[in-house]
Amino acid sequence: MPALLPDEEADVIRNRYKPDVIEGDMDSIRSEVLDFYIKLGTKVVDESHDQDTTDLHKCVSYICDFTSDLDKSRLCILVAGALGGRFDHEIGNINVLCGFKNMRIILISDDCLIHLLPGGQNHEIHILPSVVGPHCGLIPIGMPSKSTTTTGLQWNLNGTKMQFGGLISTSNIAKDDTVTVHSDSDLLWTISIKKSQDRLQ
Predict the structure, then answer these.
(1) Taking Cα atoms as reference points, which of 119, 134, 128 lies closest to residue 173?
(2) Residue 70, pLDDT score
(3) What are phi and psi of 151, to 5 degrees?
(4) What pLDDT does 198 receive?
């Protein structure tokens, strides 16, 4: 956060944007960072006894437990830093999307975003060209897609079969401000994020 607001004192920014909760197995947080936020009143939930789920899974479960069913339908969880590191961590984060497929969870990196499109539903994706695109992709996850149909892409799919080892839709282009997708199975939607300097041009 301090890097985003270079004209302000770092401690002032850290005090203003403190997390409500820090949850996980605590294997990667420095003790002085943990102590700093504890003194600011941040709640710490140590889940080091659970080595069968990822930190992201633990955090999403925590959010689910404290969100009413009505609010869950409107909830969107943005996960920063979920991509671009170790491959096994990235796959673990994508696995969380599949485990909570009825929740809207978006994984964001400096380069792209990813979210799950559950199968059997009609999806309408609104594109803000000044922020995202044009490069995008649709990737079957968990099982092959026997039939995927899209509109709004440069290379639309029309009842197309997709599977690993066969065709998957990568390096596609979002041509319209609205993209529609229908598939018989779960797909990952990914689209590039424009760098701040690109947005200014």
Answers:
(1) 134
(2) 67
(3) -135, 160
(4) 55
DSSP SS3 for 13: helix
Tokens representing 127? Answer: 């594109």
Better pLDDT: 4 or 90: 90
Which residues face 142 on adjacent strands? none
Q: Are strands 122-126 and 21-24 parallel, antiparallel or unpaired?
A: unpaired
Exposed e or buried b for every residue in 104-137, given b needs 16+ CB within 10 A? bbbbbbeebbbbbbebeeeeebebeeeebbeebb
Hey, what CATH class is 111-196 in? Answer: mainly beta
The three-state secondary structure class of 193 is: strand
**Of 37, 79, 40, 76, residue with least CA distance to 58:** 79
- Give the tens place of pLDDT for each residue, 68-88: 776 777 889 999 888 888 899
How many whole angstroms separate alpha carbon 170 and alpha carbon 20? Answer: 38
